[in-house]
Amino acid sequence: MERDEKVPQYKTIKRLQKSYLVRCNESLSNIIPGSGVKPASAIRRTEQQIKEERKRLGKLNQEELMAQMDVTSQKKVKNAQELTAKKNELIEHIKELEKKLLQYELL
């Protein structure tokens, strides 16, 4: 950080938390490591996402079972294949979120 360059004072004020102001020329992300999100908040947010995804997975399972019961035309077969593909995508996304949650818990 060079002292030669003149920056207006109002541009050097950064908010650290709700009631803390800091005067610096650089971005706070360069000065303070991390994302700025508290680990407990990140864990809670990730758990909530996993919960919502599992609800969606349950609904997809239900739709898939209903589609298997009503297999009478080609359109139904295509619909069942689409549901299976969505289900597999959702399972992969849940696995990724669980890995992310583990990383947060280890911090």
Topology of helices and strands:
Blueprint: E1 13-17, E2 20-23, H1 28-31, H2 39-69, H3 74-106
Antiparallel strand pairs: 1-2
Helix pairs in contact: 2-3
Briefly summarize what is shown.
The protein is mainly α.
Describe this protein's structure.
This protein is mainly alpha-helical and 107 residues long. It has two domains: 1-35, no CATH class; 39-106. It has three helices and two strands; from the N terminus they run ββααα. It has helices at 28-31, 39-69, 74-106; strands spanning 13-17, 20-23. Strands 1-2 form a two-stranded antiparallel ribbon. A hairpin with a 2-residue loop joins strand 1 (13-17) and strand 2 (20-23). Helix 2 (39-69) runs antiparallel to helix 3. The protein is elongated, with a radius of gyration of 24 Å. The model has no long low-confidence stretch (mean pLDDT 84).
Radius of gyration: 24 Å
Report the span from N to C terminus: 31 Å
| Number of H- or I-type helical stretches | 3
Structural class: mainly alpha
Silhouette: elongated
Q: Can you write the helix and strand succession as a string?
A: EEHHH
Low-pLDDT ranges: none
- Give the averaged pLDDT, no decimals: 84
Helix content class: 55-70%
Total number of distinct structural domains = 2
Main beta-sheet strand count, sense and barrel state = 2 strands, antiparallel
Strand content is 5-15%
Strand order of the largest sheet: 1-2
β-strand number? 2
Coiled coil: 43-107
Keywords: Coiled coil
